[in-house]
Amino acid sequence: MEAALVASGHDIADGPEDAEVFVLNSCTITHQADADARAQIRRAKRRNPAVRVLVTGCYANAEPELVAAMPEVDAVLGNGEKDELQTVLEGLTPAPGAEPAAPFVQVTALKRRKTFTPLTAATPRQRTRSLLKVQDGCNYRCSFCIVPQVRGGSRSLAVADVVSQARGLVEAGAPEVVLTGIHLGTFGRDLRPRVRLADLVAAVLPVLGDARLRLSSLDPHEVDDDLISLMAENAPQLCRYLHLPVQSGDPDVLRAMRRGHTADDFAELTAKLAARVPGVGLGTDVIVGFPGETDAAFENTYALLRDAPVAYHHVFTYSIRKGTSAASMSDQVPPQVKAARNKALRELSHGQTEAFSERAVGEVLDAVIEQGRHEHPMALADNYVRVPLVRGDLQVGQRGRITVLREGEQRVGVA
């Protein structure tokens, strides 16, 4: 969206206080995300009372009337209308002396929408990696998730268009292209002829040149042998990394969540990846405190993650989300129990991350150099090991080989 506005002649301000229009691309995955969006809107208006506020994204799609009722909001644009952002934005500047108009609202219900909103991929400012969205929406009905209601059914960008956009990003100098989607593993199921994610990866690899390709989140049952073979045969150009949300390691909880995989699926897949792709970095998402999660069910999850060859897990505490079937489930878990389980898994994850990163000491890794927050830029390896780059001639935005060393108690990269 930012790139499209820049291409049409707009300037991007550093913050709301310097802007004429503030655009918020909102999330609604939890009620806390809704609250965060409202706080951002109010904060922007406090910092600049004259700024016009346009809200888009999933919260706008889920609660358009509620968002439009906020006195700070001037326009609400749904996920299906993001390609109309420029036109709507340019209509937000009132004529001199005109009375404030009612908020502009344009939000399409996405339950039946099957078209892919064509936003061209771009490398955002202050980033070295480019995100290429190839899929949107979700056909699954996980009991805790509202995404299908606010994103619509799964739909894919044509393979030829993906290849063209990837080529353009590489020609623009991107050292890494990340294929993204709401449910990336279902890419191509709506295309005719039907294609798989492995087919897309095979089509993109030849146009990468000196860049590398990374895949974003995939459900465990969506990783097939062909995709694993591509990763094994094309590393590090195809990054040795997968994020595989498991959500729980207990059979009863997974059934209640309506997930498409089992704990055994996850265990077998991660073991296979570790064997066939040496050094692969694996991560996962897990929800603690889902309704009905007993102590024994949590222990099953803990044991699965403890024994799997994963480098990290993002731990989420279940919270009731209006509009999902899990919101009305009985056997809600007490908050203090959720907090204890969250803490236990975060501590486990920290130890696994440390162990995985420590195994990289002495290795030569393919890395992209990113802007660090502190003294040194950061080297991001293809398997997601991240270390400060302390010596060498690689610059931010470049891809190259680094050696991971230990200096005192810190792991560092040397180009």
Report a brief summary of the structure:
The chain contains 13 helices and 16 strands.
Describe the protein:
By secondary structure, the protein is an alpha/beta fold. It has 3 domains: 105 residues, 3-Layer(aba) Sandwich (Rossmann fold), CATH 3.40.50; 231 residues, Alpha-Beta Horseshoe (pyruvate-formate lyase- activating enzyme); 51 residues. The chain contains 13 helices and 16 strands. The two termini are 35 Å apart. The relative contact order is 0.08.
As a whole number of angstroms, the C-alpha radius of gyration is 22 Å
How many strands? 16
Taken in chain order, the helices and strands follow as: HEHEHHEHEEHEHEHEHEHHEHEHEEEEE
- The secondary-structure class comes to alpha/beta
CATH H-level name of the largest domain... which superfamily?
Answer: tm_1862 like domain
| Largest beta sheet: strand ordering | 12-13-14-16-15
Shape: globular
What portion of residues belong to β-strands?
Answer: 15-25%
Would you state the CATH class of the largest domain?
Alpha Beta
